[in-house]
Each structure stands twice: as C-alpha cells, then as structure tokens.
C-alpha cells in the first residue's frame, strides 16, 4: 500500500477526503444519473492537477454508468436512445473542435444561466401543457454533446429532455445512465489516444476510488427506488440547479 500511495499525487489523509467526496458525488449519480463533476470535481481539484480531474472522472463515470445499466438494462428507453445518441455524437465532435479552438467562457455562462432558469421553473410546480416533442431530441442531444465534450457538464441537458418525455423514474435513470456511459466512453477513448492515461498515477487513483464509486452508486440507487416520480424530478431539478450555479461560478472565477 505504501508503494501505491508513493505513486499517487495525494497523501493517505488527502485520499480519505477525496474518497468521501467521491462517495457523495456518486450517491447523486446513482439518483439522478449525472452530477459527479459538481461534487467530486472541486474536491479533486484541491489535490490533483485540474487537467487530470476530467480524465479521472471519465473513467469512474463510465464504470458507474455500466454498474447502473447492468442491473436494470431492460428499463432503458431504446427509442429515446436512438433519437439522442446520433445527435449527441455529432455534438461531441463539434464540442471537441471548439475545445481545440479555445474554451469560450460565454458559452459556459449561457449554459449555467439556462440550467438555473430551468431548475427554478421545474421547482416552481408549474406543469407544462404537454410533453416535449420527439423533435426536441435534436437540440437537446446536440447541445448536450457539445458541453459534455467541452466541459464534461452536459449530463443535465439529457436529464431535462428525458424528464420531459418519460413518465417512469426508473426508465429516466437508466436511460440517462446509458447516455452518460456512451458519452464518457467516447471521452475516455480520446484521452487514451492522447496518452493521458500513460500517467499511472491517474489509473492507480481510479482503481483505489473504484470501491467508493460503487458504494455511492448503490446508495443512490436504493434512494431512487424509494422516491415517487415527483420527488425524483425535484431531486433532478436540484442537481440541475447546483450544476448551473457551479458553471456560473466557474465562469466568474475565470
């Protein structure tokens, strides 16, 4: 164990803090299917280089999504996946291209404002006159793909669409997890090709945090099973609100 910690960018006491943050982050992921960057990102950024945070969370998010989907794969809405995945992939390519050209902070601010506005609307109790149209999959999937590639923060875009289309909370959660799994797999492959995972410290840290991720995801799933759909939607809206506020903070902090 001393040898392993000797290869990590954190001390054992710092690892305990990181591990706690990861458990809390994946409780949120187990409930809403997104949001790990909201909790784990800031905690990790205090102890490891910021450039290593997104690759590390990409690995953990992928395996968390696999754990979620493997238990309840039949609950995923295949029709919605067929509509979202192609435009999500296209959006990811556009986001990657924009990322190479520079991080447009105004887009980060716009996304944060949109997220906060939607969350406040959802929490207000005002019910929409009708469900979202199938055609809404194109803008939501495309924009979600862009911001997933650029900032690793597009999950709540898919959640907004899915909660406006699907009634059963379990179908929302599993479909959301499937989308996040596909999105993070794409990012992980890109990081692998770029040589990011050649840094053994990232891989060792991911391995050591794997049990914390599993515990958090399992606890979140158990909580979800006890929630009504209305309670579930409120939890998702709160996660979206916090995500939007965090993006606005990132913009303000430069």
TrEMBL record:
The keyword Ligase does not apply. It is a multi-pass membrane protein. The chain crosses the membrane at residues 15-40, 47-69, 81-101, 108-126, 138-162, 174-196, 202-220, 232-252. Its main location: membrane. Keywords: Cell membrane, Membrane, Transmembrane, Transmembrane helix, Transport. One of its GO terms (cellular component) is plasma membrane. InterPro entries: TM_pro_TauE-like (IPR002781), TSUP (IPR052017). It holds the Pfam family TauE. It is found in: Cell membrane. Belongs to the 4-toluene sulfonate uptake permease (TSUP) (TC 2.A.102) family. This is Probable membrane transporter protein.
């Amino acid at each position: 164990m001393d040898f392993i910690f000797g290869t990590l960018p954190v001390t054992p006491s710092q690892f305990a803090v990181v591990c706690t943050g990861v458990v809390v982050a994946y409780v949120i992921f187990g409930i809403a299917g997104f949001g790990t960057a909201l909790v784990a990102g800031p905690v990790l950024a205090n102890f490891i280089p910021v450039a290593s945070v997104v690759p590390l969370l990409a690995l953990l998010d992928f395996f968390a999504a696999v754990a979620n989907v493997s238990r309840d794969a039949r609950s995923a809405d295949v029709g919605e996946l067929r509509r979202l995945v192609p435009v999500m992939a296209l959006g990811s390519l556009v986001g990657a291209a924009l990322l190479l050209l520079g991080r447009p902070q105004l887009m980060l601010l716009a996304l944060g404002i949109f997220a906060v506005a939607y969350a406040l609307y959802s929490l207000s109790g005002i019910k929409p006159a009708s469900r979202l149209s199938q055609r809404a999959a194109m803008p939501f999937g495309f924009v979600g793909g862009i911001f997933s590639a650029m900032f690793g923060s597009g999950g709540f875009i898919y959640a907004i669409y899915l909660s406006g289309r699907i009634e059963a909370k379990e179908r929302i959660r599993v479909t959301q997890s499937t989308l996040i799994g596909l999105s993070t797999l794409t990012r992980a492959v890109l990081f692998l090709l770029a040589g990011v995972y050649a840094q053994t410290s990232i891989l060792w840290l991911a391995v050591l945090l794997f049990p914390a991720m599993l515990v958090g995801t399992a606890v979140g799933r158990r909580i979800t099973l006890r929630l009504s759909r209305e309670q579930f939607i409120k939890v998702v809206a709160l996660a979206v609100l916090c995500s939007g506020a965090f993006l606005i903070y990132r913009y303000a902090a430069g």
